[in-house]
Amino acid sequence: MNAIAQIRRNDQPIYLDYQATTPMDPRVLEAMMPYFTYKFGNPGSRSHSYGWEAEEGVEKARGQVAKLIGADEKEVIFTSGATESNNLAIKGVAEFYKDRRNHIVTTVTEHKCVLDTCRHLEQQGFDVTYLPVQQNGLVDLEVLRAAVTDKTVLVSIMAVNNEIGVIQPLAEIGKICREKGAFFHTDAAQAAGKIALDVEAMHIDLMSISGHKIYGPKGIGALYVRRKPRVRLVAMIVGGGQERGFRSGTLPTPLCVGLGEAAEICLKEMDGEAKRLTKLRDRMLKGLNAKLPEIYVNGDLDQRIPGNLNISFAHVEGESLMMGIKGLSVSSGSACTSASLEPSYVLRALGVEEEMAHTSLRIGLGRFTTEHEVDTAVEELAHHVTKLREMSPLWEMSQEGIDIKSIEWAAH
Amino acid sequence: MAYSEKLLDHYENPRNIGSLDKNAEDVGTGLVGAPACGDVMKLQIRVGADGLIEDAKFKTFGCGSAIASSSLVTEWVKGKTIDEAETIKNTDIARHLALPPVKIHCSVLAEDAIKAAIADYRAKASKKDETQEAAE
Predict the structure, then answer these.
(1) Tell me, what's the pLDDT at B37?
(2) Are A394 and B35 a contacting pair at CB < 8 A?
(3) N or C: which end of chain A has fewer CB within 10 A?
């Protein structure tokens, strides 16, 4: 508990944005420390003990990451993070197999780094199909099956959505890909360490992992690349040929060790932590529902990681709500897009009306969230939503029974 | 993004929240913006027999800057004639609250709201004149 006490500072708001990033677990930091100082060798140095020692640390970490996802350690390469992993997986496969197959299938609710990579490939002449999702945020398997052709080289579908936390049916998607001879890549930045993943059972060929989403360090991630049957990639960063030639550059030993340790802790504590977070999330939702009418959870509530809630507070604009709840750190979408004023493209893809999308908050619970914090958050949210509704003309109209859709609004 | 103290004050302690009777002859109501855009302002003025705005109320669905902009204009229009109130510019609001560039549209909306409320009041007044003339 000492370790946890170090994380929380009393003068800081309650952190409820665990899908944006997580604090590093002090146990992870402890494992990393020697590799910053006296175990500083280059893991690529083969001629002396400094190098061997660093290599040992890196290889142990590789094994820890592999174990988390049911892979062989030879199939894991280290990258700078999930964005690089996604870029490498998608561009690397597309480039390598372009003479045989030039079609990629993905979904409209992917993270920006997957969508942007696909757009980039479209400009290079590849065909990309962006599948819609159902109202609950999940991909329709029959729609997927129909979209995959004998020209499809890669299906890239995220394991867990970063805004609404819904879990895609990975095993079923993998089965379809295998049947059709397409590779299956999944962006598991929000899934790894939170739900059980098995690259064999789920027929996953490539998987992206991020360090800082699982209580590990920022600046490190991993890409799982299947060896049997072999998946081949064109490297984006070339040089010394590290990481099986897929990703050159001296490995950042302390970061690799940190990712490995973070993966091991997640695996060891996964079941208990999932139960604890589910309880906290249910407590939060129950508390909010008891105090506030007209709140709606976006995305499937069952097929969802335990630590995520995405709620629309009808008739209260999200940004003004965030300004009010000063004691809480939440977000109105992904951290990458929160600087823009557009409502979330993920919520729009679920068919959430634009005005409802403007009222949503993403609340992320995690390893260091306590029951007391949840109760405080419920109180603070309820107080400010009620206050803002009292000054909302839309709330007034809805209370008077006026249908907001019946009014001719001037778009601006 | 850091907001100015004035803006935060209007957001934390908004002035003149509420509604006036929109059917009253001496009340003008402006409803501008759109829920789909994330901003809706309702601004109301009550004009006294002397032609001065004696009360103003607002309700706003929108970000903190939108709330502060509408709160500020309700303060500004009180005690003014409608002709004077009509000269309030969005740039004055933006400058007073030190709105960041991405929030300038909030001040534009507040200017639109006061203009819409004045237009509504004038429409009611001229209709009243017509009916009076017709009665005479």
Answers:
(1) 87
(2) yes
(3) N
